[in-house]
Amino acid sequence: MKRFFKFSIIIILIVTTSFAVVKVSRKYSLNILKDDIDCKVITKSCEKAKAIATDDKGNIYVAYNDYIKSIDSEGKEKVLYKNKDMSIEDIVFYNDKIIFISKDSIQSFSLDDGKVNTLYSGIPESGNNISRKLLLSKNNLLLSVGAVTNSGISEGDKVDLSPIDITLTGVNYGNLKTGAFKRAGEKSEEGEKIQRSSFGNACLYSFGLKKKGSSLYASGIRGITGMDLDSKGNIIAIFSGFKNEGLRPVNRDKDYIYKIARGKWYGWPDFSGGDPITSPRFKGNELVKALLKDPPSKVVESPLYQHETVDSLRELSIDINGKLLDKDSYLFWDRDEEVLSALSPSGVYCKILKLNEKSKIEDIIYNKDGFLILDSVTGCIYSIHEKEGLLGFKLPLEIWIFVFMLSFILLCIIVLKWMKKENKKYF
């Protein structure tokens, strides 16, 4: 009896420990830095993926450069649409359609009949290795288009298209004397006017999905590397700062988190983080000169948060329900420190998850259970959620049934043996 009891206890410990080990191993060496949250791998087959989206049924949609696939709640994968001529940068789910940005157009793929339609075209490309981002806001689609150049001065044939009417100071850079919003070698003149383009760079656009039509939402944004809506419908976004490189280098700039208001100009190419580019803060060998003679505003909004470095913050999603973090806290990737970090509405910063040094986070989205994180290098989609069950994990139902039955049998054996001993006292 003692041997059987010991053997049974060992089996229970082995089963429980085995599942705990599996649980830990599935984290791919991720180090959770915040109490009361957990992380697990949803799928491992997403190497080189660009973006993800979800629907109300729990299906996950994964976009690659030239195709889109679905992953259902049971983990079954299916390629929905493939086109070698595509170059997808981001996707959203809307009314049984997958809407995506590819090359110069916004397109939709219908899950009902498989039809692909072009919704809008003529969208310019971004530069600085910053992808264009999509964000759904009720029946409108928000699209961020980054600047082609670092700070407004081109070193080739690609130039920034201005989404607003501007007037130039006539400052030119480099041996070729290149002016703002010009191709390399093309000079600008003081007082020269640049007319707005139908669709420009360094801005955020709004596109109607029920009623066709587009409008400029905000401008003067060098590049948005992540954005989401808070519980009040405010757009919160990461702004990428200037780099200290090129013909018009800007020293000591940072990345920022901003609340974006409709109709606002946020300063690019002559302001960053609310400060004029002519400030000693950005001085290198000499002060940086302004490119715009009559900027849309002489006072530019300050950010909600200023990071310590530039070109570091990527991807952003908001806990609108306070499921894992304080309500309306922002979760984002700091690729320099290889961590997922959070910022509360009151400005409290904390580190959430230490990532693998090879990780490259391409997307973060929020759903009813927590956050989904796309890592395109490890090929994983992670779920960050509340700790589950005893010791922070759940065993499968079959294992709990096995443990219960084994415990019940052990209890019966113990009771029977005790009854035999009691009977021996009377006979």
Task: Please specify the SSE layout and strand pairing.
Blueprint lengths: L1 H24 L5 E2 L4 E7 L7 E4 L5 E4 L3 E5 L5 E6 L5 E7 L2 E6 L2 E6 L5 E6 L11 E5 L2 E6 L20 E2 L4 E2 L4 E2 L13 E2 L8 E6 L5 E6 L4 E6 L5 E5 L16 E5 L10 E2 L2 E2 L28 E2 L6 E7 L9 E6 L4 E5 L5 E6 L6 E7 L2 E6 L4 E7 L10 H30 L1
Antiparallel strand pairs: 1-28, 2-31, 3-4, 4-5, 5-6, 7-8, 8-9, 9-10, 11-12, 12-17, 13-16, 14-15, 17-18, 19-20, 20-21, 21-24, 22-23, 25-26, 26-27, 27-28, 29-30, 30-31
Write up this protein:
By secondary structure, the chain is mainly β. It has a domain of 46 residues. 13% of the residues lie in helices and 35% in strands. It contains 2 helices and 31 strands. The strands form 9 sheets. Strands 1-28-27-26-25 form a 5-stranded antiparallel sheet, with no helix packed on it. A hairpin with a 2-residue loop joins β7 and β8. α1 runs antiparallel to α2. The radius of gyration is 28 Å and the shape is elongated. The two termini are 23 Å apart. The relative contact order is 0.13. InterPro entries: 6-blade_b-propeller_TolB-like (IPR011042), Quinoprot_gluc/sorb_DH_b-prop (IPR011041). This is Glucose / sorbosone dehydrogenase. It comes from Clostridium cibarium. Keywords: Membrane, Transmembrane, Transmembrane helix.
